[in-house]
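In response to reviewer comment 3 from the previous cycle, which asked for concrete evidence that the modeling workflow produces usable outputs, we include below a single protein chain processed end to end. The sequence was submitted unchanged, and the resulting structure tokens are shown without manual editing.
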Amino acid sequence: MGESDRDLVAALRAELAAVDPSRACDRTAEIAGLGPILRPREAAVARLAVRLGGRARAGSGTRRAFALPPATLDWAQVPDHCRLAWLRGRFLASGSLSLAAGRAHLEFVVAREDAPALVARLGDAGLPAAWRVRRERGVVTAKSAEAITAFLGRIGGSAALLELQARSVARSLRGDLNRVINAESANLNRSVAAAGRQLAAIDALDADGRLQLQPRTVRAVADARRETPEASLSEIAARLDLHRSAVQRALDRVERLALHDDGGVGRRGGGLRAVGPGRPVPHGGREAGPPLA
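The workflow returned the following structure tokens.
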């Protein structure tokens, strides 16, 4: 996760920690979500603990611990606003958010026995989640970016979420633009390669005289390709007042004849075979006169 993403997550957590519940029941629910002992990672969460009546106590690690007032929550009986306050407290106490490559990953690390209930409560709030055991702890995860964004908005995030959504849209637009550019580049490369093959085939047929034996349409398309190597098939067709398929067939014929020096190189159905440069004879063996256009 990049520095800007970490800053965005820190801003989101600070925004959630700054929410001041207006109802006493919401304060109690948030305290219950934070847990009896809170070891905050951010100063904003530490200030929240003090604001909710927490008292600093000696911790075993480098982070200060706060003992919060006793609080319980009957999930099945309380209204939605109390549930959201509890979930906000639980996210600030044990949740983490990771943003990388346009994807969001929300994770809670809780006691193993608490993980199934947390999954159910998140599901009630519209956030599908799963859990597993890692180092004897329950790890609850959610990976749907849309559901995570909606969930964080419901528990109090707003300004930081707007930035998160703006980044998601920008990433999506960049991805779409890159796909379009890559597709256009691939099409251009194919067109350049095809034009190169066609010009080489035209030169080969012109060198041994077989180009002049082709129907008028084939010769016209070959001349147009030589004059405008960069033109697309549609542009050549418009220039010659032909269908695009006719141009495609003419150029395919030129490439095929350049690769295979066999019969059928003259007029359609003429069955000419070359016995020397510019000396085509029909398969009956008698020398032919100059080909007709």
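The longest strand covers residues 103-111. We consider this sufficient to address the reviewer's concern, and the full set will be provided in the supplementary archive.
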